[in-house]
Structure formats: C-alpha cells, structure tokens
Amino acid sequence: ADSRTILRRLRMNLTGLTPSFGEVQALEEPAGSDWQLIINKLLASPGFGERWARHWLDIARYSDTKGYAYDPEEFTFVHGWLYRDWVVRALNEDLPFDQFLMRQLAADQLLKLGECDISDLAAMGFLTLGRRFIGVEPDIIDDRIDVVTRGMLGLTASCARCHDHKYDPIPTSDYYALYGIFNSSSEKLIAL
Fold first, then answer.
1. What would the DSSP string read from start to end of 105-164?
2. Low-confidence residues in the chain, pLDDT < 70
C-alpha cells in the first residue's frame, strides 16, 4: 500500500479518526514516513484510549442514564463520566490488564492497602453503573455477577442462579458465593 493508505489504516485502527490534512502533507517530507515515530505518536495520543475504551465500556454496560427511574430518583448516573474517564486514562497510561481488572472489582480494598490512588475508586463504576431494576436488589446483584463473569471471565454464569450450569462446572453454590460477596457490599458516593 502507498504511504497515505498506510497512514489512514493506522489512524483508523489506533484512534478511530482519519488523518488530518497536515499529517498527510507531512508524509511527503523526507522524514515524514518514519512509521515507528508515527505509531508511537498515535499510541501516545488521547484518541488511542478513547477509541479502545469504547470496546471495554460496551462490556461494562456503561451508560450515562439509568434507562428508567422512579419520580424522586435521579434519572442519570451523576458521576458515571468519572468511570468513563478512568477507563480512557487507564488505557492511555498502559495500566497492566490485571491491575485494570482488579481496580474495577476492588479499588476500595486496594486503597486501604495503599496499592492504588483515591482516583481509582472511579473504576468501581464497572459494578455500580449497571441496570437498577427499579431497586430490586436480587436483580441488581444478578446483573453484577453477570457483568463480572461474562465481561472478565468470558463465561455466562447467571443460569446458576436457579440450577447447576448445564455444560460448565458452575454450581449454584459458586453463584451464591458471589451473590454473598455482592450482597454484603454497599455503595457510597465519595468526592474524588
């Protein structure tokens, strides 16, 4: 492929945006097609995290609104944008994947151990930004179990709510062990 096509493919794959006119013109300069420099620049750009965060936010069922709410209840996730921005920042800062997952499950516990910063509490939006089921606690917990098992393990475990999993070794006892963890947890709004 020619240089313009390669640049377009790189920009679209790494940032989701087409190259600017200036970037295309820079290719015609003698040092303009230093691909290693171009790739490193794209990987360091904020657009990289914004593009790839979108995929994770789909898995995390991210939304700015609750979909429906009772009259006195807030219709939006007021601080939902903090989770979105945390995911973008984590990807742009190249946070190791195990830390990325762990902070979304237990940033509050990691903070107590001094293993993360208070701003990492926003990562717990992974659990708390899900559907609210008009306040029905068992359904909210089921949604959290579902997002953890499907999103992080690539495994559907919600059927174990009623019976042992048909094909995978997931008994109802494992489901309710997770249920107990989420049921004993509480949500708090904390100023970051």
1. HHHHHHHHTTSS-GGGGGGGHHHHTS--GGG-HHHHHHHHHHHHHHHHHS---GGGGTS-
2. 30-32, 66-75, 192
